[in-house]
């Protein structure tokens, strides 16, 4: 299989962030200012952001962000990058979040 075909066959990855609480809106704004460019630089594309239109079962009516990457490796590399880590430093204890990186179906 040639390189181009291998890249096309790789599954996308989705970074899902759910916010349980926002303790410091100013810290969140500082985080967003740094995180957006860091995620874009890593190839991330924000697909959805905001509070749920509807929740079911044990769903929480809290801010959710869905970001698509070309692969799990690129999502992890972006999270672990110096630029994104700087964004996390700016956030500090400003929010309680749950972040998951999930491989898409190929």
TrEMBL record:
It comes from Labrys wisconsinensis. This is Uncharacterized protein (DUF1330 family). InterPro entries: Dimeric_a/b-barrel, DUF1330. Residues 12-105 form the DUF1330 domain. It holds the Pfam family DUF1330. The lineage of its organism: Bacteria, Pseudomonadati, Pseudomonadota, Alphaproteobacteria, Hyphomicrobiales. It comes from the Bacteria.
